[in-house]
Amino acid sequence: MTQSILTLATHGPGLYEFTEAAQNFAQNEMVDYGLLTLFCQHTSCSLIIQENADPDVQVDLQNFFKRLVPDGTDESMQWMSHTGEGPDDMPAHIKAALTQTHLSIPVMNGHLALGTWQGIYLFEHRTRPHQRQVVLHLS
User: Fold this and answer.
1) 0.85 exceeded by the pTM?
2) DSSP 8-state code for residue 125
3) Does residue 45 sit in helix, strand or coil?
4) Which CATH number does the domain housing residue 72 bear?
């Protein structure tokens, strides 16, 4: 069993792929078979596994979430009471609640058992830059 913390710099809303970093962590630990657990230490971003071949998938996902949960300045969001951290904060919490803050990926023959077009992403929901930490735990 081993752990590490990966820091990812974000510069606004979007999907930030870190598949290679997760794969490198698993390979460097020389575990043939196991389970990699990824845990995001934040409440306004999330983790997803998504297609990494066509960038239009990322654009469409971002646009969907913008429509599903508009920014706090949108008239439809005037019901929110948590507004002290800016108009994007509570919507970011909602988006994170609708997605995931942890993932589990099997390791087989020393490699992550991802499908051909699957990538691991931090899904940033805030508008300003952040340093996000993801705990990697391999057992």
Assistant:
1) yes
2) -
3) strand
4) 2.60.120.460
Q: Look at the block and give the residue holding tokens 């952040």.
A: 130
Q: What percent of the chain has pLDDT over 90?
A: 96
Write out pLDDT tens, residues 18-63: 999 999 999 999 899 999 999 999 999 999 999 999 999 999 999 9
What is the total residue count of the chain?
139
Distance CA 71, CA 89 (A): 9
Separation between Cα atoms, residue 113 and residue 123, nearest integer Å: 21
Domain count, the chain: 1
Amino acid at 53: A
Domain that holds residue 82: 2-138
Cα 5 to chain centroid distance, Å, stands at: 14
d(CA 6, CA 25): 10
